[in-house]
Design a protein that fits this description.
Elements: E1 2-5, E2 27-30, E3 39-41, E4 45-50, E5 63-68, E6 76-78, E7 92-100, E8 113-121, E9 127-137, E10 145-150, E11 165-167, E12 171-181, E13 186-194, E14 200-212, E15 220-228, E16 233-242, H1 272-287
Parallel strand pairs: 1-14
Antiparallel strand pairs: 2-16, 3-6, 4-5, 5-16, 6-15, 7-12, 7-16, 8-9, 8-15, 9-10, 10-11, 12-13, 13-14
């Protein structure tokens, strides 16, 4: 994992149309199967389309979305179900799938780019900082995309100082941001690119010592396709989830009583009896080894 200390942010391009705070949620998902709810225009256009439109199969299900984004910060964005002023106790993860077609880089020297940001608020609900994937065709090699991470847009995907990832296979890729405490109360954001099987291809960790959770850092702001040189971007499976630690079941049936069954989420139980049955079955299985 790459550690990048950075002190830049793009407050100058924070969405002027997205300053109203709305009710936050711990979980948001839109795979565009029925609508584009939760996504908004900042001058760009988002359209729900059927799988196979323009030769692109949906990442999942029967529909995805097409995004038209201008190169002058006229993109589309989501509030992930609502802006937050309070950082979730264990952090949160935002993700979106983007289709990359290597045929877009069939001519040497092609240099088309887009920037995608997931941003964080301060405790007052105002914009604090952007964490941006810069993605583009590699002008030095045909059939290849470059990806890098920073806090500024427009960015330079192939910037050697940013340890870029190079992608040479057409398909869907997940752009993931994990917002979490670095262990000292400072925000760190792990930015990962995953292939369609969920394998992490590369990651970057961005952190700034002035981003103190609860003092200068609040909760989530937007996911924003900020700029694009491409006439169309295909996206799917947009999500935000608060991180919930895994809590294993009680060690014995006594631990299931007095509400103890409710603490477990690995698995979750319907009631106390369900917990006791599970624990007893596992005790018996262990005794028969």
């Amino acid at each position: 994992m790459k550690k990048i200390a950075t002190f830049l942010f793009v407050g100058a391009i924070a969405l002027a149309t997205a300053v109203t705070q709305v009710g936050a949620v711990s979980s948001f998902f839109n795979g565009f199967e029925t609508d584009t709810d939760g996504w908004f225009s900042n001058g760009g256009v988002i359209t729900r389309v059927a799988s196979g439109t323009n030769g692109v199969p949906s990442a999942d299900g029967s529909y995805h979305a097409e995004v038209e984004v201008g190169a002058d910060f006229t993109g589309v964005f989501t509030r992930w179900g609502g802006y937050e002023s309070v950082f979730p106790s264990n952090g949160y993860v935002t993700e979106v799938d983007v289709y990359l077609d290597t045929a877009d880089n069939s001519v040497l020297g092609t240099d088309d780019r887009f920037d995608y940001s997931s941003a964080v608020n301060d405790p007052g609900g105002n914009h604090r900082r952007d964490f941006i994937f810069s993605v583009g065709t590699d002008p030095l090699v045909t059939g290849q995309f470059a990806v890098s991470a920073s806090n500024n847009a427009p960015g330079w995907p192939s910037d050697p100082a940013r340890d870029p990832l190079f992608i040479d296979t057409t398909g869907w890729y997940t752009f993931s941001h994990t917002f979490q405490d670095d262990g000292s109360g400072v925000l760190e954001v792990i930015m990962e690119v995953k292939d369609s099987s969920g394998t992490v291809l590369d990651s970057w960790t961005l952190s700034d010592s002035s981003d103190v959770i609860g003092t200068t850092v609040g909760g989530n702001r937007y996911g924003w396709f900020v700029t694009s040189d491409f006439p169309m971007l295909e996206i799917d499976n947009s999500s935000k989830e608060d991180i919930v630690p895994v809590v294993n079941p009680p060690a014995d049936k006594e631990g299931c009583k007095d509400g103890g069954w409710q603490a477990s989420n690995n698995p979750e139980f319907k009631n106390q009896g369900d917990c006791i049955s599970y624990v007893t079955a596992n005790e018996n299985a262990s005794g028969n080894r």
